[in-house]
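Structure first, sequence second, as always.
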């Protein structure tokens, strides 16, 4: 893992892997903000399926179009994202406007959830993920809900 950003908490990583596995995708693409490379790397190591690509993006960009196209190339069955809320909000807005990306097939680590407060309403609706303690969440139109179906 690189310096600058710690990897995910063990419970957070385990829950994200569990959420993705429950959907049984054959292929995934992993995306991350520049500082969250270690989180993406940890998921890639824990994932036992096919990773089509690992795509990084900056926290600020003129359009994120190049990264959005790479993120959706190959038509993955699921996407996994890590990184700061600001960068993910911008990237997800570009994905919704310019690609066939579906937030309902997207799973995020804790930091990405904050993007719901920045992205246009509905941009992230259906996205799921885990907080740092390994509790599942789901994004509604403008709010994050605990994913009660995941509670044991």
């Amino acid at each position: 893992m690189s310096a600058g950003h710690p990897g995910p908490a063990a419970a957070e990583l385990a829950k994200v892997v569990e959420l993705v596995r429950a959907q049984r995708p054959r292929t995934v693409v992993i995306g991350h903000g520049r500082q969250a490379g270690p989180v993406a790397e940890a998921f890639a190591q824990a994932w036992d399926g096919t990773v089509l690509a690992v795509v990084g993006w900056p926290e600020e960009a003129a359009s994120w179009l190049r990264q959005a196209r790479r993120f959706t190339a190959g038509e993955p069955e699921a996407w996994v994202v890590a990184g700061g809320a600001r960068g993910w909000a911008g990237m997800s807005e570009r994905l919704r406007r310019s690609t066939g990306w579906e937030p309902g097939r997207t799973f995020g680590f804790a930091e990405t959830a904050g993007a719901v407060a920045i992205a246009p309403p509905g941009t992230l609706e259906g996205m799921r993920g885990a907080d740092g303690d390994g509790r599942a969440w789901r994004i509604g139109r403008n709010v994050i809900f605990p994913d009660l179906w995941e509670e044991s």
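Margin note: The chain has a mean pLDDT of 91.
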